[in-house]
């Protein structure tokens, strides 16, 4: 039996060695996959942190824009209030016309003596 058992034992040892080699290969692959997963997790965490920072920056910019828009709206309200107090073009033209009527350089005014003389002349004609 020892001669018959030796080839069987050799075959069993050979298969055990082959299975051990396969297990080591699988373990190495498992470690490699685990390392890749760890690397991916780290990348995801870094991306998550970067995204949080970017969102914080965006929120800060939006808040600043909101403040600026509110300031602009307030200024526009003030301008509208002041604009309602400003004279319109037609009003300015009326004032211009009145000034031109009373301008002593362009208008001709009569003196009291001239008015008296004109009235006397008219009365004499009647």
Helix fraction, binned, reads: over 70%
| Structural class determined from secondary elements | mainly alpha
Low-confidence stretches: none
Task: Count helical runs.
Answer: 3
Radius of gyration equals 53 Å
What's the N-to-C terminus distance? 175 Å
Q: Mean pLDDT, nearest integer?
A: 90
Number of strands: 0
Shape: rod-shaped
Share of β-strand residues: under 5%
Main sheet overview: none
Order of helices and strands: HHH
Strand and helix layout:
Layout: H1 2-85, H2 89-101, H3 112-125
Write a structural description.
- The chain is mainly α and 126 residues long.
- Helices cover 88% and strands 0% of the residues.
- It has 3 helices and no strands.
- It has helices at residues 2-85, 89-101, 112-125.
- The longest helix has 84 residues, at 2-85.
- The chain is rod-shaped and about 175 Å long.
Question: What brief labels describe this structure?
Answer:
126 residues, mainly alpha, 3 helices, 88% helix
């Amino acid at each position: 039996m020892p001669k018959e058992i030796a080839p069987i034992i050799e075959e069993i040892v050979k298969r055990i060695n082959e299975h051990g080699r396969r297990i080591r290969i699988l373990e190495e692959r498992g470690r490699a996959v685990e390392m890749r997963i760890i690397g991916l997790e780290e990348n995801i965490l870094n991306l998550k942190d970067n995204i949080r920072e970017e969102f914080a920056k965006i929120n800060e910019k939006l808040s600043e824009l909101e403040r600026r828009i509110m300031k602009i709206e307030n200024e526009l309200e003030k301008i509208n209030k002041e604009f309602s107090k400003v004279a319109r073009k037609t009003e300015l033209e009326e004032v211009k016309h009145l000034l031109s009527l009373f301008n002593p350089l362009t208008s001709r005014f009569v003196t009291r003596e001239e008015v008296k003389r004109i009235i006397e002349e008219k009365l004499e004609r009647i």
